[in-house]
Amino acid sequence: MPAHLPSPGMSRRDLLKRTGGLAALAAFAAACGGNTGRPSDSGGGNKVNLSQWYHQYGETGTKEAALKYAKAYTDANVSVQWTPGDYGSKLSSGLLSNKGPDVFESQLNIGMVKSNQVVALDDIIADVKDDFQPGDLATNTVDGKVYGIRMIVDPQVIYYRKSLLDKAGIKPPETMDDLIAAAKELTTNKVKGIFVGNDGGLALGGPAVWSSGGSYLTDDHKPGFTGERAAQAFSKLHELYASKSVLLGSPTDWTDPGAINQNLCAMQWIGMWAVPGMQKVLGDDLGVIPFPKLDAQGKPAVYSGGWTQFVSAKSPNVDAAKKFVKWLWIDKQDFQEDWSLNYGFHIPPRKSLAAKAAKLQNGVAADTVKLNADYGHTDNPAWTPKMGTAFGDMLTNIIRKGADPAGEISKAEKTVNAELSRLFG
């Protein structure tokens, strides 16, 4: 489901994912419905009303599926708020009020916990906790408490046209230097070597850090992107951008398979959600690799993104909202499979469901699942919106402007350290 934002670099979902910052309440008033959580006056008897918020997914059928799930629930009247445009700002405003969502999708950041915007869900996940991947639990855990139930897992990788690489005599890249060389070799007067977004590749910031052996934050809450190897990886992103082999100005951005499907590029950074659409056009002429390792000492990287369901602490009906979340995202395995597999491809967060997902057992989908298992990285909930902005500014200056990586890293590091001091003392 495109819009699955990658790492806290700068990408489409980043505009949605970091909802700890609070927008003006007026934006909420204009954007949201009037759910109050009071008993319904429209035939619902004494059932409570629950408002469930989604951003607008791109795949056909997603809204209808969300409405189907809500209608099937009999213990409350669930209304679906399907939000086009700037979901992040609307959600930030909505979480200030008990007239906002009872249940909503987002990605966790520690500000949501410290501001008492979400409630812990340990009680509803306890019996099946071991059936979730460790990374999907970690990205939703703060101070040992689980605050969200993962809905879908969205690996982001590089898909490529096998025939174009074969024609050029190029093997799938294994290092960042290989990637740069391949992109150059594959570029013609009609086709660019790679598409990594119309911004030139800011979505690759996280994978580049991981491929160098670094991280956004270390386990002891320190900046993990400040070493010489990370600087080298950022320099490689600029080298790729400056090589004139990167597609810019595509009619659709990197989250949509239009560029590779229309033969505008030989390789494209995108999520697994696009596999059905790419296979429909390209058939078996589709291969996949992780983001390449920096060098022999590095390791390939996959951003393991996705969406998570939360319960608002401001809901007038927290217990009823938790009960609904448990029903939909823990108990109703048929709906969980439907959501993950029938509207683009996603990995079901439950290990037991992923293991039997027939659509993901073969071909490039199976290859992507394995790459995610081997090299996947999830978000760190301690990474705040302010940190993400500083990191994105750093990437912009390095990748697009050719600024000195050490100087840009230093500026971002100061912001991140200030935020860490604020959060952890």
Describe, in plain words, how this protein is organized in 3D.
The chain has helices spanning 14-17, 25-31, 62-72, 87-94, 110-114, 122-125, 134-138, 162-168, 176-186, 205-211, 228-242, 258-261, 275-282, 318-331, 333-341, 351-355, 363-375, 385-400, 405-424; strands spanning 49-55, 77-83, 103-106, 141-142, 145-146, 149-160, 192-195, 265-271, 287-289, 302-311, 376-377. 41% of the residues lie in helices and 14% in strands. The model is unreliable at 1-43 (pLDDT under 50). Pfam families: SBP_bac_1.
Q: Return the CATH topology of the largest domain.
A: D-Maltodextrin-Binding Protein, domain 2
| Range of helix content | 40-55%
Q: Strand count, sense and closure of the main sheet?
A: 9 strands, mixed
Distance between the termini: 38 Å
CATH class of the largest domain: Alpha Beta
**Radius of gyration based on Cα positions:** 21 Å
Quote the average pLDDT: 90
Number of strands: 11
**Tally of distinct domains:** 2
Organism: Kribbella voronezhensis
Keywords: Sugar transport, Transport
Protein name: Multiple sugar transport system substrate-binding protein
